[in-house]
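[User] I wish I could look at a protein chain and see how it folds. I have put the entry right below:
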Amino acid sequence: MSWLGNMIARVPIERLIIPQRDPAKELQEFLATLPRPEAQKERPSEEKPTTIQESVRAPKTVATACVPCALGHFSTSSGLLNEIARFKGDGLTSHEVLDRVAACLAEQNALERVDLTPENIQALPLWEKELAEDALTRSRSLRHVLESLTSFGQLEKAAADTASFYKELNRKWFKGRFSHLGPEKAQRIADEVGNLSSEDTEKVMKRVEELAEAA
């Protein structure tokens, strides 16, 4: 399980219904302080892609192991694929392009072989299992595209599709994770997090950890 699922699971439901403290409201207020994302700007070639996933995984016994890890892998792959557009003029077989394609393949292979194994998916609650199975299907599709590349157009489509799926999966997971707050509040939190950059999403995770510590 990823640190993301572990830390959020540490916030007990009972804490959310105590009148004098409302962690969900505090999280919502914290989200409101974050800047709205602007159109992505090209990053310097030497800048490394950012991932919200930590390399150290928690024990597999906690149910929320799969989807948060999937989010991390798709976030990284999306960043790598978007970077490739800067090297279009160098050709499909340039080292800059091929190295990033290889890194994407490594992300998706790790997702399929480590995080989204049948054993891990089977342990999840129904709502999260559906997200994990969808992520597994999308990961295989992306991997097959990358393994059989013949044009830059395929890479550009893969970049757009991966970014779109990452945003969709991110919103669905947060909405499901906070469903006990009621559909309206859960949807609001999911929409807010879905609009954030990966850097700001990481700030939200840190805030969730603070709320867990105070619980």
About this structure: The chain has a mean pLDDT of 76.
